Amino acid sequence: MRAIYFVSLYVMFHALMASVLCAQSREPNVVYFMSDELGYFEPSYMGNPNIETPNLDRLVAEGIRFTQCMAGSSVCAPTRCCLLTGKHSGHTSVRLNGGGTPLRAGEETIASILKAQGYATGGFGKWGNGGRGSTGVPEQHGFDVFVGYYDQVHAHSYYPPYILRNSQEIPLPGNKGNSEGKLYSHYRIMDEGLKFIRENKDRPFFCYLPVTPPHGNFDIPDDDPAWLKYRDRNWPEPARRYAAMVAMVDRHLGEVLALLKELNIDNNTLVMFSGDNGGADYFPSAEHPKGIHLANKNPRTGVEFRGKKGKLYEGGLRVPAAARWPGKIAPGRVSDLLWYFPDVLPTIAEITGAKAPADIDGISIVPELVGNQAAGRPQQIHEFLYWELVGQTAVRMGNWKAVKPNPSAAWELFDLARDLSETTNLAASQPDILARLESFAKSAHTPAIEGTFASTDLHERDRAAKFGGNPPPLKKQKGKGNNKQDR
Predict the structure, then answer these.
(1) pTM of this prediction?
(2) 10 Å Cβ neighbour count for 46?
(3) Which tens digits make up the pLDDT trace of 142-186?
(4) Residues with Cβ < 8 Å from 416, sequence gap 6 or more?
(5) What does DSSP say about strands 29-35 and 145-149: parallel, antiparallel, or unpaired?
(6) What is the pLDDT of residue 204?
(7) pLDDT tens figures, 59-107
(8) What percent of the chain has pLDDT over 90?
(9) Residue by residue, what is the 3-state secondary structure of the chain?
(10) Residue 190 to residues 16, 129, 141, 347, 402: CA-CA distances in angstroms?
(11) Separation between Cα atoms, residue 9 and residue 34, nearest integer Å
(12) Which pLDDT belongs to residue 470?
């Protein structure tokens, strides 16, 4: 009996050790938190005097902050497509910003490659890569669950009569669309995201949080703690609402970080945070021509980015970005590495062991995150970065940047090392450099091949839901998927 007892103890001990080792070597979780339209200089860690973002500040202090993270595009839908597929906007299927243009059937995303690796995959917020009834819905591109908005027009109301879960409607009783209602959609979306993390704490997961705030409408419940903090500031009410929405997003980021710690999975989770495209320079005035909250103006130095959301100058492309991974990413680092959204997919693929598609444009930034020694190789550098958007084109090679602001305009050339505000056009004095950047642009573009709709009925229903189901007549849009720009 004693021998049996000790054998049993031996078996139990080794089973326990195997369990511990398995837990320690489990693939890392990934959380990608993206705030819609948050400007580069708006977080308080950048010295912004208006908006306090203590949780984002803590993420930066405990991880790495990037000074040169560039969006995939300067508007919402194309930038999300670049991030999810690892392709730049010369190769993506979604290059317009109507909100309904679909990914092609079978197109790989971060979620699909992680799902093949055994990950739980969840998305919560604004999709923008295919409306209901199309080949682009998230549940056809690797997401076990997606809760929120598929179409960007739908996402313009925080009080729609419903949001979506895997193409099925979740009613929000009492909501009438626009800014009128009882149930604030963002709260429900965040609750679903936190629930997903809790439910999948014992397995590897990818939690994608492309939340809509602070994108307008500038709505936040009057009893939200963030609004109570900002409601009496000496700004126009929309500017106060905007600041409160940023603070609310920061609070919800803090809730995600706290939950990871509570579940004891903090050290095994890479958390990445960014804006989705450049700031919109909201609430300009004679005193603040770049907007009250200085999305594209350095509050410490006064240096401004040229352009804003919708343009391919720095103001439309440079976004706040940070990453945290306790024990892997050294705290308090500031990185000047030049990278952009197509790099997210190969980075996540490398740290999870997933297989990245062969046709991507991104490169992994794992060595920059964890160090060359831990990564086992030096950080690769882009030969060039590329963007295109409805006739605009931009190319970046190191500190050199070429911009063609419209099809009939001449190329402009800037040296960002000396001219971050893109004020001095060097095209005439540096023809060889410009010619090289032009050749990159020519090689980078291929014609867009969009996904398709079997029917647009549900998609149009979702767009009407912004207005509570009683919209004004929709104007006929150009292209597929109702592609009106800059909604």
Answers:
(1) 0.92
(2) 20
(3) 999 999 999 999 999 999 999 999 999 999 999 999 999 999 999
(4) 314, 399, 400, 401, 422
(5) unpaired
(6) 98
(7) 999 999 999 999 999 999 999 999 999 999 999 999 999 878 999 999 9
(8) 90
(9) CHHHHHHHHHHHHHHHHHHHHHHHHCCCEEEEEEECCCCCCCCHHHCCCCCCCHHHHHHHHCCEEECCEECCCCCHHHHHHHHHHCCCCCCCCCCCCCCCCCCCCCCCCHHHHHHCCCCEEEEEEECCCCCCCECCCHHHCCCCEEEEECCCCHHHCCCCCEEEECCEEEECCCCCECCECCCCHHHHHHHHHHHHHHHCCCCCEEEEEEECCCCCCCCCCCCCHHHHHHCCCCCCHHHHHHHHHHHHHHHHHHHHHHHHHHCCCHHHEEEEEEECCCCCCCCCCCCCCCCCCCCCECCCCCCECCCCCCCCCHHHHECCEEEECCCCCCCCEEECCCEEHHHHHHHHHHHHCCCCCCCCCCCCCHHHHHCHHHHCCCCCCCCCEEEEECCEEEEEECCEEEEECCCCCCCEEEECCCCCCCCCCCCCCCHHHHHHHHHHHHHHCCCCCCCCECCCHHHHHHHHHCCCCCCCCCCCCCCCCCCCCCC
(10) 35, 20, 21, 25, 39
(11) 48
(12) 61
For the structural domain made of 385-444, what CATH number should be given?
Answer: 3.30.1120.10
Beta carbons within 8 Å of 474's beta carbon, 6+ residues apart: 460, 463, 464, 482
Burial of 436 per CB tally in 10 Å (0-12, 13-18, 19+)? middle
What CATH number was assigned to the domain covering residues 27-375?
3.40.720.10
Which amino acid belongs to residue 7?
Answer: V
Query: Per-domain residue ranges for the chain?
Result: 27-375, 385-444
Residue 295 has pLDDT above 70, yes or no: yes
- Alpha-carbon torsion, ordered 319, 325, 330, 334, to 10 deg: 0
